[in-house]
Amino acid sequence: MDKFEVLEYLNQHPEYARVLKLAVQHEEKNASEPHYLGWTWADVRAFAGTLNKLVVDGLVEVTYDSANFTNYKLTNLEATKEALQEFENLREKPTPEEKAEIPANLFDVIVGYDQVKELFWDAIKSDMPCHILLVGPPASAKSMFLLELSRLPNSHFALGGQTSKVGLADEIFDYSPKYLIIDELDDMPADEQSVLKSLMWSGVVARRKHRIRQKETFKTWVFAGSNKLEKLSDPVKSRFMKVHFHPYTFEQFKEVVVAVLTRRENIDQKLAEYIAETVGKHTRDPREAINLARVAKTEEKVNKYVALIWGENQK
After folding, report:
1. So what's the pLDDT on residue 91?
2. pLDDT of 111
3. Which end of the chain is less packed: N or C, by CB atoms within 10 Å?
4. CA-CA distance, 271 to 120, in Å (whole number)?
5. Residue of 203, 177, 213, 207 lying closest to 192 (CA atoms)
6. Where does residue 276 rank: exposed (0-12), middle (13-18), buried (19+ CB within 10 A)?
């Protein structure tokens, strides 16, 4: 295998990087030995099954085999060494998302809920992942918290009901999120919940792609929202800290919507208040008001689209 083939293999199987690195070190250390047969499983601290896979996949070859010992060597020492170096450089290089700072104004559009905000800030600052589940009906503060959390750098937003279409494991492998934000968690299928359970408990996620089983460890915080708890498995529920919410009052809804529209959407104060007042007669979901504000730039347009959306004056 050349360097690029080894690098591609490492990207698919990062769990083997440690074994290959120890093999490189052992072979370089003994390069001057004229009768060097290679290293054993003990030298790289790997099980026979791992080494057999590396042999089958072409990265390692057996150089000596007896009833008591099996010795191995890398099929291409220099290519493996260069690939490992490039692989480690890519892993250590911070992405733009990782370098980005957490927004200082996170949660500032949410009215009240100071203890919940404090909980999230402490969770975000924690050295180890901790997971929070917001439970409550639609159009409660949980929706706004999830929208705000999706602004975190290196975060990925997912809908529980959509995970079966793309595969939660695929989303985690593709995005490697530090923060996984999941709305409508109670709509997540049982098999996808098992992936989430493993991620939250051990960080390990596995998938099968191109007939190859891949397994990797992620350091991911999971923040999720759910209307109810009944559809969630007990192991998943037990891994969350759970916060319960009630629907917004009319006044809370208006205050939140005006704050979001003026601070996040650059909507004029007067128009923001009008949208909040008008939409609040039909729903307490701030997302409805946000979507409307992005297309309705006058009070006349607000009235027209509200009538269209909620069925007023339609024939």
Report:
1. 61
2. 83
3. C
4. 32
5. 207
6. buried
**Is the predicted pLDDT of residue 161 greater than 50, yes or no?**
yes
Look at residue 97 in the predicted model and tell me its pLDDT: 47
> Are the beta carbons of 23 and 40 closer than 8 angstroms?
no
Name the pTM for this structure.
Answer: 0.65
Answer yes or no: CATH 3.40.50.300 is held by domain 100-244: yes
Cα–Cα nearest to 2, from 88, 72, 83, 73: 83
Quote the pLDDT of residue 315.
42
Q: Can you list the positions of beta strands (E) in 70-185?
A: 70-74, 132-135, 155-159, 179-183
DSSP3 helix / strand / coil % (the chain, rounded to 5): 50, 15, 35
pLDDT of residue 79 exceeding 50: yes
**Are the C-beta atoms of 109 and 117 separated by less than 8 Å?**
no
User: In a 3-state reduction of DSSP, which class is residue 132?
Assistant: strand
Find the farthest-apart pair of alpha carbons in the chain and give their distance in angstroms, rounded. 92
The answer to whether the CB of 129 falls within 8 A of the CB of 203 is: yes
Q: Find, among 135, 136, 132, 141, the residue nearest to 111 by Cα.
A: 141
CATH code at 3-92: 1.10.10
